[in-house]
Each structure stands twice: as structure tokens, then as C-alpha cells.
Amino acid sequence: MSADSEFGLFGAYERHNLGDLLMPWCFERLLEDQAGPWLTIEGTDFYLESSVRSEEIKTWQSQGGRSVLHVGGDVLACDWVRAQSFVSEKYQNSDDRLREECGVFGVFGHPDAAALTALGLHALQHRGQESAGIVSYDNSYFHAERRMGLVSDNFTDEKVLEGLSGSSAVGHVRYSTTGNSILKNVQPLFADLSGGGLALAHNGNLTNGLTLREELVENGSIFQSTSDTETILQLIAKSKEKNITSCFIDALYQVEGAYALVALTTKKLIGVRDPIGIRPLVLGVLDGHHILTSETCALDIIGAKFIREVENGEMIIITESGIETIKPFPDQRPRPCIFEYIYFARPDSSVGGLSVYECRKEFGRQLATEAPKEADLVIPVPDSGVPAAIGYAQRAGIPFELGIIRNHYVGRTFIEPQQSIRAFSVKLKHNANKILVNGKKVILIDDSLVRGTTSIKIVSMMREAGAKEVHMRITSPPIMYPDYYGIDTPIKEELLAANRSIKEIEQFIGVDSISFLSIDGLYKAMGHKNGRDPKKPAFTDHCFTGEYPTGLIDQSGEDRFTQLTLLS
Predict the structure, then answer these.
(1) pTM attached to this predicted model
(2) pLDDT tens, residue by residue, 58-74
(3) Catalytic residue among 26, 78, 102, 297
(4) What is the pLDDT of residues 347-372, one digit of tens each?
(5) How confident is the model at residue 421 (pLDDT cuts 50, 70, 90)?
(6) Do residues 239 and 250 touch, judged by C-beta distance below 8 A?
């Protein structure tokens, strides 16, 4: 590389052996003033170990750093091709979408428990694509299968399902954000407790998970994973209460944040939502056997009947005797996550008694009222933008067309070893319908804007296809603040709307105009005629307002956020 090249150094730095820690020190002195920063996968600074400052690869890239030189460490275990593919998948070619961490499913007393769980997880695949797991119980033994990858890749084999014998099961699909995407973090997690086995599946994130973990370790607890789900398990195990239900409640009194939990014991299936109901959980029944799951679409796929939503702060205990419900927490107003309606939930699901599909159409209608624009076509950014685009087109009286065609057969592990290939990455998933777009004024409808990297590529694609004008309408307010409850949002410095004006955003992504749905408009579309009540907001909407509904204990310490790797 030339002397004036700007590059970062990347290697197996986080393995904590002497060679890895010594290597950046050597390169720092060898290259002297020419050395770029030492890059790591996670946001951890190893200054104390090696006297060399480090920064996260994604931060380096977001600041314009492009050339990355692989040096040091175990080259066989972490060669450049593998590192390049990891970076390409995780950061460079991210589709810049918000990610929800996981979905849960549990069934009690049904002879086809494992198969039903696998089907339910398939319906919840949109909530997590990195791993899937199922734990079953046959009245004598627990059986577990936890795999990396998709449900369809791991739980369609008859032999796998036969190994998950029993009439009760709990399952989980996971998407990791800043946590590690490794087998030890795949849920459900299982523990042998004094009262018997317990399998636990968790959707959400604890805002005091790090603090609790540190306290538990200091008191002798040994952790096998980096999941805050294990923190809950440890709290249950250490409880002095006499039965599993009381131990469960005791543990939950110590945690803060968002959670929807489904747990399987030798005699019970337990479901519980956090006190304000940030994360969703519903109750259904099939052939007289009860089911707990994240969304109604998982009930639909197995032909189960929806009974009701689990209420905020409610614990449901399912046994052979029937259903018991407990309200262990003081009453609070429910504040479900607004992003379930905007993006996370499947459009054919019902959340809070409302059709997600109809809500998204109404977002589009409201946006057309707030931000009208003369144009020839309304085009959704597939797939989440489709219902809102239909609503916008209806209200605006502009034809709705599929001006962007999505390729649904691109896997997450596509290897892109060359920059020339990476430059066309967006076309692997999206391609312009040129005949339709050429010479037209188009309005692009999308559900959210995070970093804006994908929007740049989509807009550029429209220009290349011959679009005369390109306008963008976002069916949510500007995302101004990070999330700490299980949504994969960047730090505030990486959120486009938090750091740029509307005009600057337009220039950045290359559109002729951009408008966002107002916060009051969002609430009006949800049926609140007067908009958002600032004294009693009906939803968890901190990404737009900065008003977090719970304490953020882990984030209160210095540099705590960058170290938060305990996401379930």
C-alpha cells in the first residue's frame, strides 16, 4: 500500500492470547505514523492489554474508512476472506433495516408439540434469522436442539423432530444485534434447578442486564453464554423462594427492561410480559391444548384459535389442571412497542386487537395527507413498505406500482470477496422495473430511515432506471434515539435523522424531497384522534421522542453502551 493510503488493521485481536495482543503493538511501531487504527469486531478497547487503542470495524467504515489490512492472529482461523465476508454481511452490505431480536413459542400437552413448535417458529422467522432452537419434555427427560441458521434449514428433518419427543415444547428464533452470534447463545436456554429442569425463551432486552450479571459473577455465579436470558436463569436459581413460580417472580422483580418470556418446566408452561408490555405475547388453543407465542400469525399457521393477548405485567401458568393467571407487579399503563405496528410484526398478525396490515395502510393514508406530492407513481420499498404505499396511493389518487422488484432468494451468507461485486450488492436484493419507472415522477414509500445507506442505493437505482423525479416518504417519524429494549438501532451518532436536517438528508440520499410521518400523525393513524398525549403516551416510542419508559441502568455508566453485548 502507498504511504498515503488510509487503512485500518484487522486481526484476531479479541482472542486474548499473547500473539494477538502483541501484533498490533508491533505494527504500530513498524508502520509508525502510517498506521491506521486497530479494528475489532466488537466495540471493545484493548488499550489496557496491549497499549494500542482499537475501534469497531463498523465505526471505521461509517466514518469513510475503506481499506482494511488483515494482520496477525491465527490466520488459519481468521483469514481475510472469512473476515471480509463477515464484514460484508454484518456491516458493509447491511440492508439498513431495524431488527427485532427474537420470537418465542410454547405449547403444553399436545402430542405433536415439537412439530407444532417448528411450524410456529417458521411463522415467526421474520423476527430472527440467525438461529433457532427447540426444547421438549416427555414427562421424564428434556430434549434440546439448538442450531444456527433458519428454521427451514434445521427443523424439517423428521429425525430431528423425532428426537424432540414429548407433549410439551418451547422454541425460539433469534437475531443478534451487538451480542455474539454463536451456538452458546442460541435459545431456549436450559438449566437443572433444585426443583427440576427449566427451559427459557426470551424476547427483549434487559436494561440492567450487565449490572445484574456483574453482581452475580461477584457472588460466584458462572455464566456459559453472553445472553441476558441466562441472567434471568441465574436469578431464578439463586432465589430462596420455595416453588418455581415464586422463584420466577422473585427474579423478575430484580430486572428492568422489555421482555416476553416463555418457560417450560416438568409440570408447567409459563408465559410473562414485562410490566408495561413492551414486547408482545399472545395466548391460543389447539385441540384443547394451550399455546403461548409472540404473534397471532404463529397460531394461524398451525390452525390454533386466538384467545387473547397476555396482558402487561401478567404471568400465565399452564398446567394439566388448566390456566392460572397472576399479576405480580403493581398496575401500570400498557405501553407496547410502536414498531410492532410499523415494521416488526407480520402484516397478517393482529397486535393489541388491531390488524397490523390495516395500521400500515393507515400510516400511508395519514402521510399522504401530511406530505402530498404530485407524481406519476407510488412505489413501495419491498416488502415492508407495501401496505403503507397502498394507503398513500389510495389517499393521494396516484397509481400504485411495483417499481422495485425484490429477489427473495438471496441468503445472508453470500460471499463477496471483491469491491467490484460489493458495489452491486443492492441489486442482489432489489432491482428497478425500468420500463415502468423510466421518465416518471416517483414517490418511494418506506417504513423507516436508519442510517440511510440502503436509501442511497435505492434512489440511485431509480435515477439509473430513468426516473424524472424521486421523492421519498417515510411512514414513521424520524428515528432520533437508540433503542435499549431489543431493537437493533445504532448509537445516536449513526442515526441519520438525529444528525442532519431535512435538506441535508435529501442531499445525502439524493432525493428531490423527503418527508416523515409526524408523531401526532402516527398516533392519529393508530386511532388516537388528538395525536400523542405527552403526559400519557399509549406506546413505547422513545426512538422518536427520547422518552424511555424504564430506567437505563446499564447505560448510565461511562462507555456502557459500547460494551453492551448481552442481548438475547
Answers:
(1) 0.79
(2) 676 666 665 666 555 44
(3) 102
(4) 999 999 999 999 999 999 999 999 99
(5) very low
(6) yes
Residue with cell 431464578: 236
Q: Chain-centre distance of CA 85, in angstroms?
A: 21
Strands (E), 235-365: 257-264, 269-273, 282-286, 289-293, 305-309, 315-319, 322-326, 350-351, 354-355
Q: Which of 146, 152, 194 is nearest to 174 (CA)?
A: 146
Instruction: For residue 567, count other CB atoms closer than 10 A to its CB.
Output: 26
- The H helix count followed by the E strand count for the chain is 22, 25
List residues bridging with 131 in a β-sheet: 148, 174
Domains and CATH numbers, the chain: 7-92 (no CATH), 102-335 (3.60.20.10), 355-538 (3.40.50.2020)
> Could you tell me which of 63, 202, 144, 246 has the C-alpha nearest to residue 486?
202
- Counted residue by residue, the chain has a size of 568
Question: Is 337 a catalytic site residue?
Answer: no
30 pLDDT higher than 80: no
The span from the CA of 519 to the CA of 286, in Å, is 39
Q: How many CB atoms lie within 10 A of CB 417?
A: 12
Please state the rounded mean pLDDT for residues 165-191: 82
